[in-house]
Design goal:
single chain; mainly beta; 8 strands; about 70% strand; Porin; about 190 residues; 1 helix
Amino acid sequence: MKHIYFSFLVLLFCSTDIYGQIIDFKKDKYWIDVGFCSYGSEDKSGSSFNLGLNVVKGDTLYKVRFHNSKESNFLGSHPTERFYCGGMMVGKEFSNKEVQMHLLSGFGITGGIKRGEFLYSKSSELFSKDYYQEDVFVTPSMLLEVGFIIKLIKNLGLGITFWGNLNTEKPMFGITILQLKIGKLRK
C-alpha cells in the first residue's frame, strides 16, 4: 500500500510542477473536480470517489486523476476488495459557453487488495461468510474517460463522466453520476 501512495504523490507533484510552468492563469481554463461514482468489474461492483486536477491549453485537456474504489460487500466475503488508481491523461475538449465535452486517455498506476485463495467459511443461523487470503497488487493501467459538463456559472459546473481502467489485475469501468467542478471553466 505504501508504494501506491508514494507513486501517486510522485505523479501529483511532478505533474503540478509541470502545470505551474505552463499555465497562463489569465488565458487558460483550469479546475478541480470531485465525484462520486459506481464501478463494475468482471464479477464485482461498488462505489468510488474521484478527484481530478484539469488544465485546458487551446483545445487540449490535461488531467491528473485519483480514484478510490471499494466493493459493495454487505455481510459478504472477507476481505472487502479495495482499489486505488492515480494517473495522467491527455485529450481533446469541445466547449461553448454553457456545455463542455471531453475525450481523454492516459496511463496510471492501479493497486489495491483483492481476494486470493479461499481459506474457510463461517456460518451463523442466518448468514455465512467466506474468508479469503488478501492479495495486494500494483500494476500499470491505461485510463479512458468521456465527460460532459454543464457550466452553471463561470466557476462552477456539474458533470457526468464515463471511465475505464484497463489493467492486468482488475479491469474496471464506471460512471460518475455527480461530479462537481470548481475553477475557471469559462474564458
